[in-house]
């Protein structure tokens, strides 16, 4: 039995943040019903690279969609029609959780907001994920990940300094704001679910903003500003508080070194053949190394560029100095640690035959993640869900199809 066996989720969300949260709940065993627009479906069905079938031909499925939607059942419902709205309300009566990421106020127009669904199911945990939250002067605005990376301060601390080649604020290379909000959503949903089941007997509304989530996730770097009043600098791959904590050029590529304490620094210097650096009063402690990085780092760089990445990596590993190569994704999925942890898997798919998946990283001892189904094709489970959950007869389902409600 899975950790969330018996929990049902109505996923009204699209794109990344909501679907990511719903996929996590599906991985943990929840029955997730994904509601999509007839004909078009989730917007990410039209974003990303086309997935190949067994013969190497393109399918209609995209890399973005299959990254966020395994384990779900897809149904198509036209929520612009009153009959479609009624179907969603009836489904909500049989669910524990609703996830939506429409703009603030949008679902109220369809009678599908928290107040409306709570009226038919007071036990619902209803999670609203939006760009700026349900309240405030920006709550009506749309937004996507780059906006929240820029407005949260994340881009101001990412990239090289203005005085460096290619310097300037830089976006993180994936939709970190969406994924971060998705993780916060899962935590909040599970907390609210426990409160319902142990304390109150009733659900509640969760108001989660992508901007708020990204500001919160910046964490200790934001605290540097709050305690000093000074904008943290952009240092590329280096850290403003720890040194050496960055990438270095080697003969055949780059290696990342992350020396977290003075003992590791002594071992690092021993591997470099420069033990005197560890006893130099300018570099004796981490705060001193960070303060004197402009003196220390060039000396380290000169030594590190004399050997290949693999040589340094092996020696650092033997000396328990944290380090690692800068991998491309081929190297990532060929890495023996990633292979051992089974972080790459394939799941069956209705049109592609099977699709690759990055596995859930959580390893439960008693309730392991159960990958029960691959990402669904559009509307794959409409008839199944309407019959199983709502008890509709085949004739009633056929009539809904005829009226283009589903």
From TrEMBL:
Keywords: Plasmid, Transferase. It comes from the Bacteria. Signal peptide: none annotated. GO terms for molecular function: transferase activity. The keyword Transferase applies. Gene3D superfamilies: Crotonobetainyl-coa:carnitine coa-transferase, domain 1, formyl-coa transferase, domain 3. InterPro entries: CoA-transferase_III_domain (IPR050483), CoA-Trfase_fam_III (IPR003673), CoA-Trfase_III_dom3_sf (IPR044855), CoA-Trfase_III_dom_1_sf (IPR023606). PANTHER family: SUCCINATE--HYDROXYMETHYLGLUTARATE COA-TRANSFERASE. This is CoA transferase. It comes from Comamonas endophytica.
């Amino acid at each position: 039995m899975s950790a969330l066996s018996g929990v049902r989720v109505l996923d009204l969300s699209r794109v990344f943040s909501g679907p990511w949260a719903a996929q996590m709940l599906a991985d943990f065993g929840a029955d997730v019903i994904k509601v999509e627009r007839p004909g078009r479906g989730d917007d990410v069905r039209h974003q990303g690279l086309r997935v190949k079938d067994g013969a190497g031909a393109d399918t209609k499925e995209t890399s973005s969609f299959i990254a966020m939607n395994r384990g779900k059942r897809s149904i198509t419902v036209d929520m612009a029609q009153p009959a479609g709205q009624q179907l969603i309300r009836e489904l909500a009566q049989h669910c524990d959780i609703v996830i939506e990421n429409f703009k603030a106020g949008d679902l109220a127009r369809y009678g599908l907001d928290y107040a409306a669904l709570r009226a038919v199911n007071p036990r619902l945990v209803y999670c609203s994920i939006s760009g700026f939250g349900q309240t405030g002067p920006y709550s009506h605005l749309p937004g996507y990940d780059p906006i929240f990376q820029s407005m949260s301060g994340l881009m101001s601390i990412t990239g090289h300094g203005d005085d460096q080649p290619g310097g300037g604020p830089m976006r993180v290379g994936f939709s970190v704001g969406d994924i971060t909000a998705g993780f916060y959503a899962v935590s909040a949903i599970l907390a609210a679910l426990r409160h319902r089941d142990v304390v109150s007997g009733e659900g509640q509304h969760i108001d989660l903003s992508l901007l708020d989530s990204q500001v919160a996730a910046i964490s200790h770097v934001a605290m540097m500003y709050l305690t000093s009043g000074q904008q943290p600098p952009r240092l590329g791959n280096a850290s403003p508080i720890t040194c050496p904590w960055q990438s270095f050029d080697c003969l055949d590529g780059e290696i990342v070194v992350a020396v977290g304490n003075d003992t590791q620094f002594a071992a690092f210097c021993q591997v470099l053949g420069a033990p005197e650096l560890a006893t130099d009063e300018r570099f004796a402690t981490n705060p001193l190394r960070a303060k004197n990085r402009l003196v220390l780092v060039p000396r380290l760089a000169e030594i590190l560029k004399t050997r290949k990445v693999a040589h340094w990596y092996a020696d650092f590993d033997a000396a328990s100095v944290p380090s690692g190569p800068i991998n491309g994704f081929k190297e990532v999925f060929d890495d023996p640690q990633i292979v051992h942890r089974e972080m790459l898997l394939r799941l069956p798919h209705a049109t592609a035959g099977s699709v690759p998946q990055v596995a859930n990283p959580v390893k439960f001892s008693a309730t392991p993640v159960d990958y029960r189904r691959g990402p669904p094709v559009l509307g794959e489970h409409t008839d199944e869900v309407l019959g199983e959950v709502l008890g509709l007869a085949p004739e009633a389902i056929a009539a809904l199809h005829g009226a283009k409600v589903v």
